[in-house]
Amino acid sequence: MEILQSPSDQKKKFLLNIVTGNSGGGHIATYNALRAIIEQQGLPWEISATNVDALAQHLGEQKKTLDIFRLFGTSGDQFINHMMKKGWTWVLRLIMPLVKLMIKLNYEAAISTLEGCWREQQPDMVVSVTPFFNKIVWDSLQRVKPSTPLVTVLIDFADLPPAYWIEPETGSYVVCGTERAVEQARSLGVEEDLIVKTSGMVINPRFYEPIVSDRAQERQRLGLDPNCLTGLVLFGGNGSKVMLEIAKRLERFQQKLQLIFICGHNEELALALHQSQGLQKRFVTTFTKDIPYYMHLCDFLIGKPGPGTISEALVMNLPVIVERSAATMLQERYNTDWIQQQKVGLVIRSFRDIDQAVEQFLQPENFACYRANVAAVNNRAVFEIPDILQNILATNYKTTVEQPLQQR
Q1: Distances in Å between the alpha carbon of 175 and those of 112, 129, 158, 188, 189?
Q2: What angle do CA 15, 131, 206 make, to 5 degrees?
Q3: H or E stretch at 35
Q4: Is the pLDDT assigned to residue 401 strictly greater than 90?
Q5: Looking at per-residue confidence, does 7 or 400 come out higher?
Q6: HSE of 188 in the Cβ direction (CA atoms, 13 Å)?
Q7: How are beta strands 45-51 and 125-128 bridged, if at all?
Q8: How does residue 282 score in pLDDT terms, banded at 50, 70 and 90?
Q9: What mean pLDDT is reported for the chain?
Q10: 13 with 45: CB under 8 angstroms?
Q11: What local confidence, expressed as pLDDT, does residue 78 receive?
Q12: What's the CA gap between 111 and 291, in Å, rounded?
C-alpha cells in the first residue's frame, strides 16, 4: 500500500501565490493578514503576491490593453481610491460595468500576462483576495498548470453577481464568511465540495492579541477623560470630510461623550478637526498602524460599512454606527443588513442623524444589549484559513497522484 504524504508533511516548501489589488485597502490588508498568520504558524509555505492592478497598469503603459482611465491620466485603482477619498462613492456604481467591460475586452492580454507569471513562479496554490479577475486567473492557470488549485477568499460579506467574486464556471474553491455568501455560491451553481464556510471575514491576527496597557491611563495620556464613553471615528486610509459633520453634530454631548478621530493620510482633515475643536474632548491623529490600540481605548465605532472595519470593530468588542444611503457602495450594502440582523450596531440613513444614534448608545441598558450581541459574534476566520488551505493542498496532492496510478 502506497502512503501519500500531505504537503505539510513534506520537506519541500510549497509556493502560495496571493492575488491582490490596490482598490481600497481591504485587499492588501487581507494579504497581510494571511501572510502574518502563515508566518506565525510556521507553515512550510513560500508566499508571493500578484497585484492585478499593477499588472493592468503595466499593460496599459505598454499600450497592450485598452484602458479608458489612461485618457484621464490615471489608472482604475487610483481613480476608485480618489473617488472614495472625496466621498463620491456614488460614482463607483457607474464605474463597475465599465471595469467589467474593460476586463472582457482585455481578456487575452491579461491571460497572456498571467500565463507568464505562473510559468515563472510555478505556484502550488493560488489564493485570490480580489474580485473581477478570478475567471482570468482560473483560465490562465488551466493553460499553464491545470492541477494548481485556485481558492477565492471573499473579503465582502456577500457577492455582487454577475462576474464579481464568484465565477461558477470555474473550479475555484470559494471561501465565504457569511451564510448569505454560501447561499449565493450554491444558487450560482458552485459545487458543494468547493464551498467553504468560515466564521467571518479574515482580519489581521494583531486584533486578537491582548493589549496590556491600562485603558484609563492611556486615555489620560491622550488628553481624554478616563471614564467617559468614547467613540472611534474611522473612515479608511484617506478619511472622509463627513468626519467634520460628525464632530459638529456630536458637540452637544460634550459632557457625556469624547471622540478619537483617525484621519488616515488626510492631513488637511486632521488640521480642520483640530481647529474646530470646542469644548468637546477629542483626540485627532493621521495615518497609524496602531488601529487595535485605538480600538482598545474606545467603546464603539462610527464609520463606513466596510467589511474589514466592521469585522475589526466587532473582534475588539465595539458596536458600530454606519450609514446606508444612495452613496453606499453596492458591495457594502448587504453589510448594513447584516449589522441589523445581528443587532451589533445601528444603521442610519445619513450622518446628519448621528446625534440621534449616539443618544441610543448613551442609554446604559441599550448599550449593554449591543455589547452583548457583539460579544456573541465569534469570528476566528484568520485562524481557520491555514487549515482550510492545508486540506485543499492535501486533497489536490492526493488527486494528482492517484489519477496517474488509476490510468496504469
Answers
A1: 27, 10, 11, 14, 15
A2: 60
A3: helix 26-40
A4: no
A5: 400
A6: 25
A7: unpaired
A8: very high
A9: 88
A10: yes
A11: 67
A12: 38
